[in-house]
Fold this protein.
Amino acid sequence: MDSPSSKSNQASILLRLWRNQEHRSTIIQIFTIVIMLVFLGMIVRNVDTNMRTIGKEFSFDFLNSPAGYDITFQPFISYSPTDTHTRAGIVGLLNTFLVAISGIIIATILGFTLGILRLSNNWLVSRIVYVFLEFTRNVPILLHILFVYGIFVYTFPVPKKAISISDTVFFSNRGVYTPAPVFEEGFKYVFISILIAILIIFFFIRWSRKVQDTTGKIYPVFYISIAILIGLPLVIFFSAGSPISIEIPALKGFNFKGGTSIKPEYIALTFALSYYTACFIAEIVRGGILAISKGQTEAAHGLGMRPNRTLQLIVIPQALRVIIPPLCSQYLNLTKNSSLAIAIGYMDVVATIGGISLMQTGKEMETMIIVLLIYLCISLFISAFMNWFNRKMALEDR
Amino acid sequence: MRALLKSALALIAVGALVLPVSAGTLEDVKSRGELRCVVSTGIAGFAYPDESGNWKGFDIDFCRATAAAVLGDASKMKAVTSTGKTRFTKLNSGEGDVLWRNTTITFSRDVGIKLTFVGVNYYDGQGFMVNKSLGVNSAKELDGASVCIQTGTTTELNLADFFRANNMKYEAVTIEKNSEARALYMSGRCDIYTTDASGLAATRSTFPNPNDHKILPEIISKEPLGPATRQGDDQWADIIRWVYNATVTAEELGVNSSNVDSMRNSNNPEILRLLGVEDNQGQELGLNRDWAYQIIKQVGNYGEIFERNIGTNTPIGLARGLNDLWTRGGLQYSPPFR
């Protein structure tokens, strides 16, 4: 049994804990975590009760049943309606990767170009780029996607009236049809020669750097590398008797058959995502370059470096340190924005497992959790890669 | 500390808002004074906003009929639009009270998605529409064609089945909304547009030159379209079922919106039961005695609803066909009011 004195003793202990700043902050943190957990628990419980009320079961079994629907764009793995929902999801995931990777590459090239042009001394060039950047950045991405897709579908003719370039490449509103290479037996030698060329270039770069360090002589490394990369496989290709044949697309019935086709949905989505993101990258690049003080350039010039090498060796490496962290978030944005694909019917992961599979099976909760986790994983992976790259580029303490 | 307390309270308040859906839809609707129907984002003749923004159409009229029965006023309804993909989620999450949105009844939707389907207010089937200039006369000639379809529909699965069964290939262009699919078909991105035959007729009526397009003779599926409610609320499902039955029975008995007042003095006991003059069947449903009278007075019987929105005198121009009364060779048949 508690005596009055022990009660007041307990109270004073609590008060003392509270008055200690370190303990107080711990108490507040514990309190906050408890509230967060309670809130989370409420949501989970709510979902659980609601699903129980309408008699729904939480399970991922549906993933192994046949999907039943078709996916038009499946460039990597084959898929038919008899395949499972899992496979449909993977086809969608690969399509997401395709858009994200090609989008990131194009956006980077375009973004750096625009960023440098924006700094151009030529008034007209910098103004044109400025207007383009401001217009693009201030219109929502969904409108860009619909706009580009609309232009594509309405300006290009139907397949029967397709624009052709000497009857080998065709432009129609069903896509761009190009001849496809058919690799024959001897092509493996060409492939091996490409690998050898890359190896030679690698050693050549190391060797030329050593020469530069010891003698100061500079080789035109870039041009020589390109010459090796193209020259060697070309020589092998012809000496192996051109082991490649070309399949030319031809109009048969409703559509073109044969060759390679690039679908308008893919073109529109990739193009819109790249130029939209490129505008943000351009501003980041501009900021990065402007952040390097003019004294650096002047000092390099003072040492007798040419403008090209000044940019390459002095400005860009320092600018990159400023550029990389925000660049990373632009890559993340591009990848996440690719989920707008459904608006124009590009079958990405949201359209397949998070769209049609959701509808046909009625498993909203399960499919959405899958899609959420997939995007989380992709984003974390990109972040990790960019963090690694950033550390590599960061200023070393000397 | 005060800020922390405040944010904690805010969190709890948000949590309280996410309460479970209550079981009694009827009480919810009555206390709200407004019926919320999940309808499509716009299909001419079935559910579409007119020039002044009022929702009209076949599905909307059934929604109005429900509002007339439950609340006594057909105008006390609100259209909750949804795409094919979100419709069931909107119903199950309680955003809408009932689904009047040409939705095909299937096993997986009834059993898997946990809906209660209460009747078929339109018997439909999937068809194909092509431009006449293509010279196609049968769906069997469509090998290699590009097909525009709306995602989240039974159409998608039927299409895959049909082409597989006939050993043909096709390119599916999957789009989320009817309006976008229509635009793509018009641009020539697709050779064919496929959906329920009623939807094809409705879409064709909105084209600049409807006669340039034809609907192929093959109907490749059964698409019984009907209203749905959340599973587990039997009283509410009963109400929706008998709202629909009342419109069909009224047509069968020759009761329409212009003669319903004089029909209250009819000698036919079934009419008197339907209109609540003799029995009080409304009370058993949890509704007013004159619920069916209000439906017919304010909205009309099945035939009136059909002819007004999608019948032969409208731009949609659909014949009654399967949707005629059973007494005239159709499938519309209501159990007796007894």
Chain B touches chain A through 52 residues (CB under 8 Å). Confidence is low (pLDDT under 50) at residues 11-21 of chain B.
